[in-house]
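Researcher: Dear colleague, please comment on this protein.
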Amino acid sequence: MYERPQMEIPEPVRHMAERNVEQARTAYGQFMEMARQAQSLMSRSSGAMAESVAEIQARTLRFAEQNMEAGFQFASELARARDLKEYVEIQSRHAQRQMQTYAQQAQELGRMMSELAQRSQAKP
């Protein structure tokens, strides 16, 4: 009877994949914390400030949609990988791209929240 050869993933490749996932998870956690802060501001704001917070909330939702779409695209690419090398390359590219995306998103939300905080302090 024919037995398929066992394909073992080399330990350095597993470590790299785990490290990439952890880095992406950390960046995503930072993004989500900024989103939670925006939501908290929304619940405490009123009037013109509420409009700014609503803008932050809308931006956060748009970012979440973009991130989910990136996740679906990532899964599709992984499903088409022809071998382990391509699989790892796809995973690494996605992790790097998402870390950059999360950092940019968190930076933008931070800027928006900082502007909101400055406006709220300037208000008599």
User: Anything to note?
Assistant: The helical segments are 11-44, 47-79, 84-122.
